[in-house]
Specification:
Length: 246
């Protein structure tokens, strides 16, 4: 099946793409961000406001870097569960951190009990949700009232000259690097997925619509990276209709 619209992939195609690039993923992240992604993940951990004994879910965990960063702060006595819909990403995560629990899960139908976790995070994965509202509602369902949800994502800067630099880097250099690494299609999908994703203000509104409170967001790296945090409100979060894989 071909792409849906400009740069849009069906859920099964997205999963196959991440399976395909799993072996390149860590190297490309380091090259594309000059290693800064570790600092952004550390900030996401701070915003999750968890500590020893906390239970945290990292959705779309990829190769497990954010789960590993979380594990450092919930010890001793805590637990981090990393889940993803890409089997190959999970293979890399388990090899990197065999002491952690990594498992397959659909972000739109998480196999966890309501209120099971003290916090949940998503690092560079929310823009791959086939249904963003359903994914946000599921995050809110599995986190206890008063717990936090943190979303770390790439966004589009609006101020020049950074916006022009971003377009040159993300729209041209990243696909070129992907081609050199052997998967131009995957790294052309990346900038197109960012363009389709809600702006930081729009994402904050969607989080509120799906039952989160005290929402705020931080822009860093000149506006290229957005970190959103919201608190799960008392009572059940809404469950939008629909389904499917991330």
């Amino acid at each position: 099946m071909g792409p849906r619209g400009s740069g849009t992939l069906e859920p099964g195609q997205v999963r196959a793409m991440f399976d395909r690039i799993a072996g390149l993923y860590d190297v490309m992240n380091n090259v594309m961000t000059a290693g800064m992604h570790h600092r952004w993940r550390a900030r996401a951990v701070e915003l999750a406001a968890v500590g020893p004994g906390s239970r945290v879910l990292d959705v779309a965990t990829g190769t497990g870097d954010l789960a590993l960063a979380l594990a450092d702060v919930v010890a001793p006595g805590g637990e981090v569960v990393g889940c993803d819909f890409s089997d190959e990403m999970l293979v890399r995560a388990r090899a990197k951190a065999p002491q952690l629990r990594f498992e397959w899960a659909d972000a739109l139908a998480l196999p966890y009990a309501t209120g099971e976790f003290d916090a949940a995070t998503v690092g560079f994965g929310a823009r791959n949700f086939a249904d963003l509202d359903r994914g946000l509602a599921e995050l809110g369902r599995v986190v206890r009232p008063g717990g936090r949800i943190v979303i770390l994502e790439i966004t589009q800067p609006t101020r020049e000259p950074l916006a022009a630099f971003y377009r040159g880097w993300f729209d041209h250099l990243v696909p070129a690097l992907g081609a050199l690494a052997g998967d131009a299609a995957a790294y052309s999908y990346l900038p197109s997925s960012v363009r389709r994703f809600p702006t930081p203000a729009e994402l904050a509104a969607r989080m509120e619509h799906n039952g989160l409170e005290q929402i705020r967001y931080i822009l860093t790296a000149g506006g290229i990276i957005a970190l959103h945090v919201g608190v799960v409100a008392p009572g059940p979060a809404p469950r939008p209709a629909g389904g499917g894989q991330v």
